[in-house]
Amino acid sequence: MSLDAHLVVTHPGFSLDVELTAAPGEVVALLGPNGAGKTTALRSLAGLAALDDGHVTLDGVRLDDEPPENRRIGVVFQDYLLFPHLTALDNVAFGPRCRRVPRRQARDTAREWLERVGLAEHVRKKPRQLSGGQAQRVALARALAAEPKLLLLDEPLAALDARTRLDTRSALRGHLTSFPGATVLVTHDPLDALMLADRLVIIEDGRIVQSGDAATITAQPRTDYVARLVGLNLYRGRADGTTVLLPDGFSLITAVPQEGAVFVAFPPSAVSLFAARPEGSPRNTWPATVTSVARHGDALRIELTGPLAVAADVTPAAAVQLELEPGREVWATVKATEATAYPA
Ligand SMILES: Nc1ncnc2c1ncn2[C@@H]1O[C@H](COP(=O)(O)OP(=O)(O)OP(=O)(O)O)[C@@H](O)[C@H]1O
């Protein structure tokens, strides 16, 4: 169930030319700025957009001449909606039914999958009676129930609010871990990529600019986009429920409990700075000293030392008001809901 693809697609003013492989069980994330060609790549893998050149091979079998329904590819696309007139159960049973599995058996399989994604009580609901997170899980169950060899996910979490996103991301990670086929995931969100993927492939302007595991890419970004992308505050520690103890003794509180070795990540935009210790403040609050101030897009990126070394993004107005300059002592906070912990 390994994927080997060379995707060449030409539109007026844009050309995509990327080579992509994914081993059985491997999750590959395609990341890139808007218009980089991620969706085009995914659609051409799915057979929804024609290749102008190249090939798509799954397990050594060329797929590019096969119609989408014969490709044994599961897709969870943002615009690939559930059938509105079918129940969750029949939406999920649709895949097996397409493969001529008898109705009762298809429904049994669908029920199992809906249980697996935690929707046992919602099998009879129509899509409009489901929340965004539930609909996303039905879409995932529908894709997996068809026993695809390749799973394609296009921004699977983008439509969800922050809290639902966190829960759904963790659950999705579990499902991907037990999925035996190859997975290709498109996302804008570095956290999705770090948490869900074994390997990242960064696409800019239709070309691969960097690929590798998260640690390698984080250590050695090769383009401005990648540098900004990995501009996450990332720590390794040991989780005991929602408390993560870092090696130098500082503890971070996270929203989702974990156990054992974990990473904790949050973006610089999640760090707030205050002149005095804030009252009734979020769970993570510590004194910090500014070491540098640099322009970062429309914001200023502030590097701080203290019990936790962090980067924070603040508006220029806030930087002036807080008199942020090297040596300035401030208080930093991060909400537990912004600090994501995931197994290391
Ligand atoms: N059918 C089409 N006809 C012409 N141009 C297209 C077509 N589909 C995509 N493009 C162009 O191809 C480029 C890549 O688009 P694509 O949607 O693949 O990028 P993306 O990386 O997924 O972007 P985003 O993150 O914004 O979704 C864009 O410049 C887009 O305008």
UniProtKB/TrEMBL annotation:
Keywords: ATP-binding, Molybdenum, Nucleotide-binding, Transport. One of its GO terms (molecular function) is ATP binding. Residues 1-230 form the ABC transporter domain. Pfam families: ABC_tran, TOBE. Signal peptide: none annotated. Residues 279-343 form the Mop domain. Gene3D superfamilies: 2.40.50.100, P-loop containing nucleotide triphosphate hydrolases. The keyword Nucleotide-binding applies. PANTHER family: SPERMIDINE/PUTRESCINE IMPORT ATP-BINDING PROTEIN POTA, SPERMIDINE_PUTRESCINE IMPORT ATP-BINDING PROTEIN POTA. This is ABC transporter ATP-binding protein.
